Amino acid sequence: HVSVVLFTSDLRLHDHPPLHAALDSADAVVPLFVRDRAVAAAGFDAPNRSAFLADCLADLDASLRERGGRLVVRSGDLVEEVCRAVTEADADEVHMSAAHSAFAARREERLRRALEADGRRLFVHDTVTVAVPPGELTPSTSDHFAVFTPYFRHWAGARLRPVVAAPRRVPVPEQVKGDPLPGRAEVAGVSPALPPGGESAARRRVAAYWRRGLDAYDTTRDDLAGDTTSRLSAHLHFGTLSPVELVHRARRRGGPGAEALVRQLAWRDFHRQVLAARPAAARLDYRTKRDRWRSERTAGADILAWREGRTGYPVIDAAMRQLSQEGWMHNRARLLTASFLTKTLYVDWRIGAAHFLHWLVDGDVPNNQLNWQWMAGVGTDTRPNRVLNPVTQAKRYDPDGVYVRRWVPELRDVDAPAVHEPWKLPGPARAALHYPERVVELAEGLDRFRRARTGTEREP
Ligand code: FAD
After folding, report:
1. What top-level class would CATH report for the domain 296-453?
2. Known binding site for FAD: residues?
3. Which uninterrupted H or E stretch holds 252?
4. pTM score above 0.90
5. Atom number in ligand 1 closest to CA 233
6. Residue 455 has what pLDDT?
7. Which of 6, 62, 240, 422 is the most buried (most CB within 10 A)?
8. pLDDT (0 to 100) of residue 282
9. In the chain, where the domains are located
10. Which residues pair with 32 in a beta bridge?
């Protein structure tokens, strides 16, 4: 009796309920990963994530080999490839984890129908990529929570399933063969400082963070230069870490740092339950303000300056350069750059979200699209017209200018606070910097935004 375990956004062996269930009922399993051509067709296989994914698959294969098995990787249409593996292994069951996008829901339904037509069964496990699944918590008046704080109150009281141990042995039938594993080196256009992927790297990162960082997370998480957040986001995106296990571990640790991290993990689930209930929010405003955003056509030069880190606002430029160099950006910097693009430059949030999705190694549709909307004031923010001032925020969160100087070498020799406002330097000192002029004055940007938003509020 053989089962297929279809790996998707859950590239790990620890705390993996589908694998655990399959091994419980079968003598052997086929651990399968399909490089779905629909993902590539949607442009979602950006270089940084493809490179990170290659690491994840190599690491998963190595861990399976230590347990007497191996990973089977195939490319093509996911449903066809799963059915092919099922036939080759003569499997009667497929186990996989639930996913919550409209794309994943359609794909799952197609797979279920194809398997059932052939007399096989699909088992979908719903607490693999989230701690609390979408739809489990609902307010009395709606099918999902539209505001984080009440959601979090319920989320914090939800019962989590226990953690499932990694299997000791994973027997895989001989006759099912896969393609060669993709290699990170084959991917072009990768950020030079992209971190390594894979479950082993994820578990090392957790161990290091639990030793140093976690307990101070609540007080240091906004320190741009200190870089003291967990940097677990790409691991959570690819599922090399289990959110259920992380929440259990953080709660066991206790204290304000761990509690603050648990709250951030709840944001992940929050966005997933919004998107599961309103799939169109991946592209359309969750709560429209009828903005007539500036676009590539009307704001092309400003958008280019933003993308390339040449806006003349040091903290914005530092952040945008960190993004292309590392494939990751600090959360405070994401907030500042998103506020700058959508509110100061009044450019469509979708343009910013697409740029982020190209570079972010943790680029994730629910987290990215809904955080962008939150900052653009068309999402779940209860203060949709807030504008973050990049100068005051830079002075607060990068008081010594270390973050700015790390990423903007033109400002290497400028001290704080001038490093955040180079336009205030005396003429000759300013001219010697070879650093761009501001694309717009903050007051001018603010004015345009206020005029655009006045009188346009519309209830959801
Ligand atoms: P930590 O501060 O250590 O937080 C721990 C974990 O909690 C993160 O790894 C993440 O999984 C989760 N988390 C933290 N903040 C948020 C949040 N606001 N929303 C949802 N989950 C959160 N996160 C992504 O994972 N993918 C994205 O594509 C993404 N795009 C974003 C775009 C914008 C404009 C903004 C403002 C935020 C975005 N975030 C995104 C959320 C957040 O910035 C990152 O999760 C965080 O910076 C990752 O670093 P970390 O792992 O060190 O976070």
Report:
1. mainly alpha
2. 217, 229-233, 362-364
3. helix 243-253
4. yes
5. 9
6. 55
7. 240
8. 95
9. 2-128, 130-160+199-277, 296-453
10. 6, 72
* 72 bridge partner residues: 32
Report CA(233)–ligand 1 centroid distance (Å).
6
Query: Of the CATH numbers 1.25.40.80, 2.60.120.1130, 3.40.50.10490, 3.40.50.2000, which one belongs to the domain with range 130-160+199-277?
Result: 1.25.40.80
Nearest CA to ligand 1 atom 32: 368
Ranges under pLDDT 70 in the chain? 455-460
List, in order, residues 6 or more apart from 416 with CB less than 8 Å away.
395, 398, 399, 400, 401
Q: Residue 101: what pLDDT?
A: 86
**Ligand 1 lining (C-beta closer than 6 Å):** 221, 229-233, 236-237, 261, 264-265, 267-268, 271, 331, 334-335, 338, 356, 360, 362-364, 367-368, 371-372, 375
Torsions phi, psi for 31 (to 5 deg): -80, 110
Closest alpha carbon to 123 in 3, 272, 1, 244:
3
- 137: three-class secondary structure by DSSP: coil
Distance 13 CA to ligand 1 centre (A): 24
**Domain 2-128 has what CATH class?**
alpha beta
Q: What's residue 460's pLDDT?
A: 37
Ligand 1 atom 4 nearest Cα:
264
Hey, how many other C-beta atoms are within 10 angstroms of the C-beta on 220? 15
Instruction: Give pLDDT, residue 381.
Output: 93
